[in-house]
């Protein structure tokens, strides 16, 4: 049920398993909105999960002292925190600040948390925490990992121009939908369109914005599939209020969470992928959508800013609602010949990205900087 940040850890282990030993510390449940404990793992002890050792802690178990104890049991050469604000990472950083663990090299991947859009959600709480974190030196001497040059600038804008930031795009699998067939993509008839989004439903993803744009579309048959867990019920009620007032030509299907293969199949059966996010450091789901032959209609708060030049979608500023509405109408009117070209170009772009070794080399450089050739332990926030 979690987002692309978790899949990047899966890919990280898969692609570096021959070079490093991985120890992952994580919750024994899916997310804040889905806290039922996993029944297929042992909680409170190490599990062998494919190519990594994984420790699943129960809710409330990971205190500062417990974090220090786990680090002592592993004795890692370095630690990667897969969030700057996630509770597991903060427990470790607090133990480090208190001297409960040795001075181990630390890499922090904030995963888009330093973007202005992300910081605009619960801004007072985050502003106060960042002020405290700087005073308490939570992030003293850490290496920051950004997914793009834009995220590097966001990190330095928040944490200071002097902090060390290395760029390494999020790791993706070697293949996505290996049995893909362009001929099997759904035909695109002018006057009909199927949009899809796969995402955790929360304020940061800004789904209500696209729904509000649809409210202005009075003609054409439009289907919008919303796939993903309802992470923030207060926010979802806001979306529901918009859905209830949509024109009769708009059909919204609230699909809920799906396993990754099912979600990809749903995207493959759609025409265009939508994500008007307030902030994405990488947007793992976007490369998946492109691999499924779905051109993108997204905000300008991601690293994917050359979609139109490549003929694989549109990046539109969130303050230009009129352009979103215009593009939705163009998608409705688009005939199959034009769509097929965009779909094939999307698939080709994704294959090019998946085959490019530069992301893996960049991540290797981050490890080399932190480790100077040694092994690594990972704490997954």
List keywords for this structure.
alpha/beta; 17% strand; 6-stranded parallel sheet; disordered C terminus; globular; 381 residues
Residues in helix, %: 25-40%
The multimeric state of the shown protein is single chain
- Work out the number of β strands: 14
Whole-number mean pLDDT: 91
Q: Which class of secondary structure composition applies to the elements?
A: alpha/beta
Q: Note poorly predicted spans.
A: 373-381
- If helices are DSSP runs of H or I spanning 4 or more residues, what is the number of helices? 14
Strand order of the largest sheet: 2-3-1-14-4-5-6-7
The radius of gyration computed from the alpha-carbon positions, rounded to a whole number of angstroms, is 21 Å
Overall, the morphology is: globular
**End-to-end separation:** 15 Å
Structure at a glance:
The protein has helices at 4-16, 64-74, 87-97, 116-119, 123-136, 149-159, 207-214, 233-243, 260-268, 284-291, 307-310, 321-333, 336-355, 358-371, and strands at 23-27, 46-49, 52-57, 79-81, 106-108, 143-146, 165-167, 192-198, 221-227, 250-256, 272-275, 296-299, 313-316, 377-379. With 381 residues, it is of the alpha/beta class.
What report would you give on this structure?
With 381 residues, this protein is α/β, with parallel strands linked by helices. Helix content is 40%, strand content 17%. The chain contains 14 helices and 14 strands. It has an 8-stranded mixed sheet, sandwiched between helices. Helix 6 links the parallel strand 6 and strand 7. The C terminus is likely disordered.
């Amino acid at each position: 049920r979690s987002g692309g940040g978790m899949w990047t850890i899966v890919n990280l282990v898969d692609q570096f398993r021959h070079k490093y030993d991985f120890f992952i510390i994580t919750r024994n449940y899916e997310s804040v909105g889905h806290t039922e404990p996993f029944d297929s793992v042992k909680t409170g002890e190490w599990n062998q999960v494919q190519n990594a050792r994984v420790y699943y802690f129960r809710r409330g178990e990971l205190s500062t002292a417990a974090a220090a104890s786990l680090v002592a049991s592993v004795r890692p050469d370095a630690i990667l925190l897969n969030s700057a604000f996630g509770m597991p990472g903060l427990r470790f950083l607090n133990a480090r600040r208190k001297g409960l663990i040795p001075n181990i090299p630390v890499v922090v991947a904030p995963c888009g948390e330093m973007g202005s859009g992300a910081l605009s959600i619960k801004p007072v709480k985050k502003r106060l925490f960042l002020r405290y974190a700087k005073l308490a030196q939570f992030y003293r001497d850490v290496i920051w990992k950004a997914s793009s040059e834009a995220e590097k600038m966001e990190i330095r804008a928040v944490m200071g121009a002097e902090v060390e930031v290395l760029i390494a795009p999020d790791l993706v699998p070697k293949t996505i939908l290996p049995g893909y067939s362009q001929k099997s993509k759904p035909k695109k008839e002018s006057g009909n369109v199927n949009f899809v989004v796969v995402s955790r439903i929360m304020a940061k993803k800004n789904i209500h914005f696209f729904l509000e744009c649809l409210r202005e579309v009075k003609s054409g048959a439009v289907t919008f599939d919303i796939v993903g867990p309802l992470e923030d019920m207060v926010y979802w009620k806001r979306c529901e209020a918009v859905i209830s007032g949509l024109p009769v030509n708009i059909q919204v299907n609230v699909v809920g969470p799906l396993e990754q293969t099912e979600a990809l199949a749903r995207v493959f059966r759609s025409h265009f992928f939508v994500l008007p996010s307030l902030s994405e450091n990488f947007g793992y789901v976007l490369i998946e959508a492109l691999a499924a032959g779905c051109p993108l209609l997204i905000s300008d708060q991601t690293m994917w800013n050359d979609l139109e030049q490549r003929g694989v979608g549109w990046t539109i500023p969130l303050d230009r609602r009129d352009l979103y509405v215009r593009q939705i109408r163009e998608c409705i009117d688009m005939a199959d010949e034009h769509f097929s070209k965009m779909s094939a170009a999307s698939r080709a772009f994704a294959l090019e990205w998946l085959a490019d070794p530069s992301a893996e080399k960049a991540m290797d450089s981050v490890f080399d900087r932190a480790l100077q050739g040694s092994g690594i332990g990972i704490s997954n926030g």
